Amino acid sequence: MKHKAILSPGLFFIGDELKGENVSKSQRTLGDLAGIFEDQAAYGRMPAEQLAYEVYSYLPEREGTPGGLYFGITRLYPGKVGNEYFMTKGHFHRLEDRAEYYWGLEGEGMLILMDRERNTWAERMVPGSLHYIPGGVAHRVTNTGSGILSFAACWPSDAGHNYEEIANEGFSARLIEENGTPKLR
Ligand code: M6P
Ligand code: ZN
Questions:
Q1: Protein residues with CB under 6 Å of any ligand 1 atom
Q2: What pLDDT, in 10s, does the model give residues 91-115?
């Protein structure tokens, strides 16, 4: 009975940590990111078990529920495969028109965005930067710094993840380090 009850919070978002009873954690190793980096030879020389990023998420509704919201924090480790920065898998939403917010918490990186016409661009991600990702725009984050890059995300519980298209076709540009600076190529 919640009527007139005064409850203590059970969920905490402090710094770049998400803590609470129903927070789930998932991890992606380099081995889970097979096929996303350009330099396959350099990829092959790296340990498959090396952690690339971890995601803490709070998913209070059943996946697919219309009208609900999910919240997550992603912590992406620094590193490169050849000259390409560590990055998230990246995805369109399964329900194409669903939007999402990302915002920078710690570290430096770039949010790579690609629309349905395969136009690709990047937004610098720094602590406090807020990024609106409209529906129909694929999104992936790269870590261009020397420390952890963490960002928060909020997305609809019926958005879903469409990874297949990115796995098959990739983004139309990659973020590569050239003469010490990141370039979209
Ligand atoms: C954010 C959200 C999640 C996503 C995660 C990692 O927290 O967008 O939905 O799963 O980043 O990104 P990806 O799924 O592309 O690896
Ligand atoms: Zn998304």
A1: 55, 72, 74, 88-91, 100, 153, 155, 161
A2: 999 999 999 999 999 999 999 999 9
Neighbouring residues of the ion ligand 2, judged by CB less than 5 Å: 100
Q: Please state the pTM of the whole predicted model.
A: 0.96
Asked if residue 89 lies in contact with residue 36, where contact means CB atoms within 8 angstroms, the answer is: yes
- For the chain, strand residue ranges (E) read 11-14, 17-20, 23-29, 51-58, 69-76, 80-81, 84-85, 100-106, 109-114, 120-125, 130-133, 138-143, 149-156, 175-178, 181-184
The ligand whose atoms approach the alpha carbon of 141 most closely is 1
The best mutation among 30, 55, 140 to test binding of ligand 1, ranked by most ligand atoms within 8 Å of the C-beta, falls on 55
pLDDT band at 1; cut points 50, 70, 90? confident
DSSP character string of 51-91: EEEEEEEE--S-TT-TT-EEEEEEEE---EETTEEPB---B
Residue 11 CB coordination number (10 Å) = 13
CA 139–ligand 2 middle distance (angstroms): 7
The span from the CA of 14 to the CA of 52, in Å, is 22
